[in-house]
């Protein structure tokens, strides 16, 4: 199959999904690459279109065993037309549950043909110095695997005459998908005296929950707990409030999900 453009669509508040996508793109090695980083709200205004001559790589982090709920509306505007697609989820070494099958189902409903899927591990968004979880993942081995997976996909695509000849991957997961927990206001960020009001947190928040004029306040109704503001703060002035559910969950993850999980492919 002749692919003209590799389209990379990804959401990555703390950068681990973006790192996996970059490594896969290296292995895929197409000359023309379109980068569609939908992390920030303004990038989610336009629908993405792709034809049968494009290869789409769509990648999202796992939130509660599902795709992040805020991405569903954008994903449901994808305009695909027999487009070959590779679906990737990145999870924090607990479990990816139904996220990959959910992503694959939406892409299929929108007119794509899923050629393969993969689940990679990234440092858990809730990981902290006190309760580390999958720290520094994806590491060099993970990125080598991602590049290698990209290379395998490229070889398979090059060998296909038509998308109709592509074998369909067996993507794991249950339908109906794992139920989402009801979402109430989320008030878990504390800001200490180290904050110099630089505003980087507000610039990097994927849901605009931090008011540029009131940087120490995070809107609990908008916050999605992605922890981007904690990880990007150059002064390390932002953290989870002691005793909050996020801190409790980080402790649980640290104690129960310490054993290293490896990337898995469905191809
Ligand atoms: C709200 C929320 C829910 C999460 N749920 C899961 C989960 O169910 N399983 C898991 O292993 N990791 C979970 N994670 C961790 C992320 O999937 C993981 O850290 C991922 O690498 C973050 O991607 P990013 O760096 O591209 O933002 C969750 C993170 C957040 C913020």
Automatic annotation (TrEMBL):
Keywords: 4Fe-4S, Iron, Iron-sulfur, Metal-binding. This is 4Fe-4S binding protein. Transmembrane segments: none annotated. PANTHER family: ADENYLYLSULFATE REDUCTASE, BETA SUBUNIT (PTHR43687), FERREDOXIN III (PTHR43687:SF1). Residues 163-185 are annotated as: Disordered. PROSITE patterns: 4FE4S_FER_1, 4FE4S_FER_2, FLAVODOXIN_LIKE. Residues 165-184 have a biased composition (Basic and acidic residues). It comes from Pseudodesulfovibrio methanolicus.
């Amino acid at each position: 199959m002749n692919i003209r453009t590799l389209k990379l669509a990804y959401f990555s508040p703390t950068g681990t999904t973006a790192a996996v996508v970059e490594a896969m793109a290296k292995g895929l090695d197409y000359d023309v690459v379109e980068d569609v980083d939908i992390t920030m709200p303004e990038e989610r205004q336009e629908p993405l279109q792709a034809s049968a001559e494009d290869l789409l790589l769509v990648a999202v982090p796992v939130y509660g065993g599902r795709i992040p709920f805020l991405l569903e509306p954008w994903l449901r505007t994808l305009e695909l037309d027999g487009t070959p697609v590779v679906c990737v989820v990145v999870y924090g070494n607990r479990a990816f549950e139904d996220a990959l099958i959910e992503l694959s189902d939406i892409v299929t409903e929108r007119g794509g043909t899923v050629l393969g899927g993969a689940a990679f591990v990234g440092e858990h968004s809730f990981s902290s110095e006190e309760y580390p979880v999958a720290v520094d993942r994806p590491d060099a081995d993970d990125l080598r695997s991602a590049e290698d997976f990209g290379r395998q996909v490229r070889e398979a695509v090059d060998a296909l005459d038509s998308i109709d000849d592509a074998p369909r991957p067996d993507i794991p997961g249950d339908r109906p998908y794992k139920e989402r927990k009801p979402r109430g206001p989320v008030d878990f960020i504390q800001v200490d005296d180290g904050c110099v009001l630089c505003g980087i947190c507000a610039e990097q928040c994927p849901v605009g929950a931090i008011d540029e004029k009131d940087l120490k306040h995070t809107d609990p109704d908008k916050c999605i707990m992605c922890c981007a503001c904690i990880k990007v703060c150059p002064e390390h002035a932002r953290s989870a409030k002691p005793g909050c559910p996020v801190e409790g969950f980080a402790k649980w993850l640290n104690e129960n999900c310490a054993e290293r999980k490896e990337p898995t492919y469905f191809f």
